[in-house]
Fold these 2 entries.
Entry 1:
Amino acid sequence: MSASAPPRVDVRAYACPMTYVKAKIALERLAAGERLEVWLAAGEPVENLPRSAAEDGHRVLAVEPLAGAPGAFRVVLEKGAGAAPEWP
Amino acid sequence: MNDERLERYARQLLVPGFGEAAQERLGRARVRVVGADAVASAGLVYLVQAGVGRLWIEDAEDVSPSDASGWLFAPSAVGSPRVEAARAVLAPLSRFVSIEPYPKGGVPTATLVFASSGPQALASAEAARRAGIPHVVVEPDAEGGALVVVPPGAPCYACARSTAGAGRPAQPGIAALSALGAAELVLMIANPESTPGRRIDLVRGVATARPTSRLPGCACGGPGAGAT
Ligand SMILES: [Zn+2]
């Protein structure tokens, strides 16, 4: 894997289920083992997204407050090998 | 895909394996629907909600009193052309789907057949097979009915249809059969590579599926039969 920063989706302005829809589409563009950083609002989004990602077979590597953005969180996901592939 | 579309199809986009590319493929699809009677009602609604780009409805008849007992047509629609009555109900469901009468010479990318006669079902399916496009034929009967799912190159409808032919009126589970037919077509459009040809029998609400096989000597196995 490259050492460059992982792609990022900022869904702080969105509510469920759009938060995970946006993350899921971004994950579809990655290969297994690649990472995605998601910026989320506190509350429902940050409670639901890590769970949805795990249910779809991705690894949740980090859930932490987003530096310099009070009330926001940063979630790092790693695309799982067992995750259902996007149809070609 | 813009946010408006993402929001509209969010639930479908959350299905594992069904993503943005599949939704965009649906959005580009031109689906010919043959027959728009009560049997077709649930399937038509399903296609609109799933987000096919263009729905071409083909039916020369008017709404009958028995159609109006289905959920698409109101009693006030009895006597008006089925295609127009269906469009009036379906169009407000989604502004992303264009709903039109099947245009003469139109080139569909998929076909869903609810034909009320055996010969019409066969002819519609054969046209789709020759065009090399995915199609599903819905055959209601008194117990529920069956679907024949035909991806390009698979054994044709004639190889797998009910020898008794499709019956009317259909009774139990008709909305389920109709929607299942539409769902199978949507899956083939969204994911063209991985759907096998199969026949699904829905008997009193219980679905069983089996792969279809080619009848010896059928034209669908001959030259020009497509990808087999
Ligand atoms: Zn055949």
Entry 2:
Amino acid sequence: MSKIDPLALAGAKSKGKRPYFLETDVERLTNIVLVLAQELAVVRERTDTLERLLEQSGVLTRQEIETFTPTKQQADERGAWTQEYLARVFRVLQQEREALHTQEASSEEVADELAKV
Amino acid sequence: MSSLVSDKPKAEPARTYDGPPDYRVVGQHGMYPHLSHDEISRFNFLAHMNRHLSTQIMPGVKEAFDARVEPKFAAANGRGFKDRHEVRKALLKDSLFQWWSALRRATMETRQQAGRWVTLRQADQLNAKAKALTEHDQRLKLNPDLPLPRYVEAIDHHCMPGSYHTELTDGDVTGPCNYDIGIFATTGGMLGRYNDGGGQAIAAWVKETLPDLKPKRILDIGAGLGHNVLPIAQAFPDAEVVAIDVGAPMLRYGLARAKTMGVDNISFVQGDVSDLSDLADESFDMIHSCMFLHETSYASMPKIFAETHRLLKPGGIVFHVEQPQYTPEMPLFEQAMRDWDAFYNNEPFWTKMHEVDLDSWMVSAGFARDKLMHSGVAAVVDPDVFPQAAKDTKQEDYGRKAAWHVVGAVK
Ligand SMILES: C[S@@+](CC[C@H](N)C(=O)[O-])C[C@H]1O[C@@H](n2cnc3c(N)ncnc32)[C@H](O)[C@@H]1O
């Protein structure tokens, strides 16, 4: 095993105080979004390679992909996946909405309560 | 077939493509690391990101400057801008400049991470390869006791973690290897297959300017991993070339890389070019630096210039290749934009170096004023594969444009 751990070191900070141009949290989020955009491009390019190779080897044509129409059953399955996906992504908003209708104690308050003798 | 799907003949492309080539055109020398499909895609994305920033977003910064930054400043102060620093400070309050800057910085950091991942995950193989190529080779001369100049040690230039000198392990070359493989992403492919568009331009310029020069010995100061000295060594195959740098990993990688590219007339020597007392007076016919002075200091520059004067043979030529100086003719907006890398991409001395009168510094070092020379060079790249830097009018990337000024002298 190498002594060099790429996971820990690849993202190392460069020496020198980092400037921020936006509100720090907005800029942090921007950095996260940029990397997600990068990784989406990576996946997109890989899919593109796949399609071209499959076409080259005669497995399918890209025209078949473009003209693919899911059956009712397939469309339902895909729709369900998209719904689950969105539910995951927007969990925080769902919970925000649920909280509107409740009056709940915080863990700290519950802890205090449970410590009462 | 669904009615949504047309059976019309294939549409013509909506526009002709004009952008960076696929990363795979980058030259694969023998020290090149393995890059997976996804790793290549990351560099493709980053090259596009940089080009998008410079061609689509940066022009908006100029528009915002004209439309609101400058008028606002004039209204508030009853006068125009005094200098580039006032311009920059006013720009910092503008949201388009802020967003462009935040994304540019983020792209640079993301590029470093992408490249470091590639080289660090195969560090042992890369380091072993470099060792096999350089061990017992007299052309690699390292000096582990050499003190690091403060300006190298103080900050990691262009946000490259570990800069030019850090060794994560004995014989480490992962730093320079990361530098090498990621230049494509930072420049959008503007420096050519081997990132040597600058060196090729220099070689062509020397041959054109001094057709009778047959240098026997050539010195490159601050040569880095040798990108730009290779084409010069190739242009003068009978010359003995000495490439000096303070960073041991750069030199180690540089020699290994050069050997796999079949360039054998360069020695890679570790030294601080403000004191080259090991080298004899008047022992070089040509001495040059490429994109080097802006990473030094006011204290060292006169020493460096004096050393070049001492080391140069009478009749020999010295020159420095850099981005243009800030002269009164250069608009303050352009100066402020060119300063971006100084303040926000860890190139602190950039702003200071670009305001001095290099001619006077050369004269103080002993060169005759009437023997000074000035010129300009633009990256030479393979036009079949890369958008040609000089002709690419769409890309005004200020300090990162692949075109430089040359200031030099004949002794
Ligand atoms: C921006 S790089 C330029 C590399 C190369 N000339 C090129 O064209 O790509 C600057 C290099 O100068 C080196 N350097 C900085 N100060 C130095 C000094 N005093 N003596 C020798 N090398 C130095 C750094 O280690 C770094 O490799």
